[in-house]
Specification:
The complex is a heterodimer of chains A (255) and B (323). By secondary structure, chain A is of the alpha/beta class. Chain A is 27% helix and 31% strand. In chain A, α3 packs across α4. The termini of chain B are far apart. The mean pLDDT of chain B is 95. Classes of the chains: A alpha/beta (255), B alpha/beta (323).
């Protein structure tokens, strides 16, 4: 089975956000595989171990992304394609067009991606890729099984669980709960250094840089207004409960 | 610049969610004097059309078919496409709900359109529509504008003012949707787990519990407080993982993102993933034994103490208030 994983490198979820000249500052930030994409990598490797096949990681981003690629290869992915090209660093339109162009001429039975990235949080790219490739998709999957030429997936729909089937090839997006991603082993890390990473430029994909240019542009990035220190209520339980209800009614006006 | 704006209504158990009216409010701003239409997709939902008209839709398209009783991406996308063909909008708005966030990028991709997801504010600056949306799990906000013939956006519930209710009726039209026979995803079964009662995504008051609640039974006192306040009960991932409550109640980056007027966090330490789901609540109350818990940093009011004493005392005080 040929499995493709769409992966993004993101800020560590604990990273503090600092603005510099109106942009989010990257210096000193720890980068990780987007946690939802990490579930996608793990699921792909698990399926490969069960069914045989090849896991290819596809990613778009600057040189620093190679660290995330090496981690995925060390976990057990077989090869990677890295689009390291300014023309590919646009918005969701740009990135989905690039990913779809990379994937379309390759053999694939299954595409797995995270359901959203923890930086932009827009949750668009995977679904767009499915549309551009003309394959069905199943979003926010918490359980995945391959049954002959068909996938059977459990998906999280605002708390309800839907059991959805689709024929291969299909794209699924990973939700938390799908699996517990493994840590790369020492042998895995050693092997990863020998696995191939193909570098691809937008021009090689037959894409017109203008046609895939970003549609959305950033007007401004702002940090949330600093919250004043909250008020810690003192006294015995009854008095504090009374004071809180009074404050919520009279000062905050939410009761 | 006048625009035609299409709003895809969001339903829960065949009822309109309030976010549908909030999206109509946003649509009115974006339309800038143009027309606003609403699209109703579902089975046996045509009775809801009047309410969309009353909340600002000049035109209501009703796509009512048995197949729409269950969400299937291709079917819903086909209905939206049909409405786009009929109404020729320059912008399409969805709710940032399970369905909206799934269909919107399908539609956007088909039109090679830009999309603003999880929008919490909309304004017009000259001819430009400026959308504000959270990034880095709410640790920053970005204002974006979108170029092109079609703008797509998903609206986060509870953030934008709902379009006021008027006596208007709206022009209601049936929208016949052609469904292709070769739809490839099939829903075999749905396990309903979402709790009944107040819709967590849209609740004005939420009482939420974490690991500190210690057991499923421990949630009973939270339920009681929520009932007295007319709110909903939520939970942290920790509480769900520990099996105290169902994942449908989970609030956080993975679960639901909520913005109630009042959020009461009981026995929740305040991990970043949880804060991402609730830190924009208008007023936050934290009840925790540990005075160092990070939840106190975002709280407007804090009570350091045992939630099993504090919550019942609060319930009693709230009862007196509403007596």
């Amino acid at each position: 089975m040929n499995i493709i994983v769409c992966m993004k490198q993101t800020f560590d979820t604990e990273a503090r956000i600092v603005l510099e000249n109106g942009a989010v500052k990257e210096d000193g930030v720890q980068f990780i595989i987007n946690p939802y994409d990490e579930y996608a990598v793990e699921e792909a490797i698990k399926l490969k171990e069960a069914e045989g096949g090849v896991v290819t990681v596809v990613t778009v981003g600057p040189a620093r992304v190679e660290e995330a690629i090496r981690t995925a290869l060390a976990m057990g992915a077989d090869e990677a394609i890295h689009v390291e090209d300014e023309a590919a660093f646009g918005d969701e339109v740009t990135v989905s067009e690039v990913l779809a162009a990379v994937i379309k001429d390759r053999p694939y039975d299954l595409i797995i991606a995270g359901n959203q990235a923890v930086d932009d949080g827009s949750g668009q790219v995977a679904v767009r890729v499915a549309e551009l490739l003309g394959v069905p998709h199943i979003s926010t999957v918490t359980k995945l099984e391959i049954n002959g030429g068909e996938v059977v997936a459990e998906r999280d729909a605002e708390g309800d669980t839907e059991i959805v089937t689709a024929p291969l090839p299909v794209l699924v997006t990973a939700q938390q709960g799908l699996n517990e991603p493994r840590y790369p082993s020492l042998i895995g890390i050693r092997k990863a250094s020998k696995k191939p990473i193909a570098k691809v430029a937008v021009a090689e994909l037959g894409l017109d840089a203008l046609a895939i240019a970003r549609r959305s542009s950033v007007v401004e990035i702002v940090l949330p207004a600093a919250k004043g220190a909250g008020r810690v209520l003192e006294g015995d339980t009854g008095a504090r409960a009374q004071a809180l209800v009074r404050e919520l009614r009279q000062t905050s006006k939410v009761l | 610049m006048k625009r035609n704006v299409l709003v895809v209504a969001d339903l829960r158990a065949n009822q309109l969610r309030n976010v549908s009216f909030e999206a109509l409010g946003a649509a009115r701003i974006i339309a800038d004097g143009g027309e606003v239409a609403a699209l109703l997709i579902g089975h046996e939902v045509s009775g809801l059309a009047a309410s969309l008209g009353a909340h600002g839709a000049d035109q209501v398209y009703v796509a009512d078919r048995e197949e729409f009783g269950q969400y299937v991406p291709d079917h819903y996308a086909a209905a939206v496409e049909q409405a786009i063909e009929a109404f020729a909008p320059q912008a399409v708005l969805f709710a940032h709900s399970a369905i909206g966030r799934d269909v919107a990028p399908m539609v956007a991709a088909r039109h090679k359109a830009g999309q603003a997801s999880d929008v919490i504010h909309v304004e017009l600056v000259g001819d430009d529509v400026i959308f504000t949306r959270p990034i880095y799990a709410g640790k920053a906000f970005v204002k974006v504008k979108i170029a092109g013939d079609l703008i797509v956006a998903t609206i986060r519930p509870n953030n934008l003012p709902a379009h006021e209710e008027t006596g208007a009726l709206g022009n209601v039209t049936d929208l016949p949707v052609r469904l292709s026979g070769d739809v490839s995803t099939h829903v075999r079964d749905v396990l309903k787990k979402a709790v009944s009662g107040v819709d967590l995504s849209e609740a004005k008051i939420i009482v939420s519990g974490g690991r500190g609640v210690k057991s499923a039974e421990g949630f009973a006192s939270l339920q009681e407080l929520a009932a007295v306040l007319g709110g909903a009960v939520g939970a942290s991932r920790g509480a769900c993982d520990a099996g105290y409550c169902d994942y449908s109640m989970q609030i956080g980056q993975t679960g639901k993102v909520v913005t109630p007027d009042l959020y009461i966090a009981c026995g929740i330490s305040g991990a970043i993933q949880h804060l991402a789901g609730m830190s924009n609540s208008k007023v936050i109350v934290a009840i925790n034994k540990d005075p160092e818990a990070p939840i106190f940093k975002v709280a407007d009011y804090g009570i350091v103490g045992d939630l099993f004493e504090v919550v019942p005392a609060l319930t009693e005080e709230a009862r007196k208030l509403f007596a």
